[in-house]
Amino acid sequence: MPELPEVETVRRGLTPVLVGKRLARVVTYRPDLRVALPEGLAQRLTGRRVVALGRRSKYLLWHFDDATVLIVHLGMSGRVRVFDGPPPPRGPHDHVVFETDAGATLRFCDPRRFGLMALSDKASLDRHPLLARLGGEPLDESFDGAALAARLKGRRGPIKNALMDQSVVAGLGNIYVCESLFRAGLSPRRRAGTVQGQRARRLAGAIREVLDAAIATGGSSINDHRRPSGELGYFQHDFAVYGREGETCPQCDCAGRRSGGIRRIVQSGRSTFYCATRQR
Ligand SMILES: [Zn+2]
Q1: For the whole model, what pTM was predicted?
Q2: CA 209 to ligand 1 centroid distance, Å
Q3: Catalytic status, residue 30
């Protein structure tokens, strides 16, 4: 499932392909993905020029010259494939196709159809139901310890669950929450409201570092914006704790101690990985 760093990498990869270009042709091959595609999507976007490509949480925001904004979510399995010349035959899961006036073809491929497309306009974008309740954007300059502490103040549940709440921090999924808590040295079981002051500063910094490192990895692995297959959007990353139950963490010899290495617990139905020696 694409997480925030993957979506940001897709955004950066698509920027030179889309921004400043006009959509010469848009074709939808089915009426819905997770929900119905917007009515008249193809007609509304055909002939429009893309003026900017933004991102909020895991949503890609295509800004057009008439102030229309196309909101795209990749869901569980969505990918955007880019072809510069004549593309190969369309696959069964290529549900929406965009062609630019520069001759590029973009195909939105989504086998499981958990992806989503919606239309908004620039003026009311922040109030769109998909975006209105999202919390701080972790890569924004305004995201710091004080902002995070304010969101966590008074919360009684564990910090792991608070960070998974999209109204606290936008776009963080299970992997990057586990990695950020490890980097900050905070136990996932710690009561969220106690993460204030220095702890909140440490955690905000850790979240940004973990995301930046992942984006740097993704960016370098698709240096020419895409893989040879034309795919954008997924990359492997070395994790410190995620998926490493029983192993020793990069910061101590926990596997040889009584704590037995990286632990896996379940919080709100999701696996949490952490080092009980380093994270308090
Ligand atoms: Zn350890």
Answers
A1: 0.89
A2: 19
A3: no
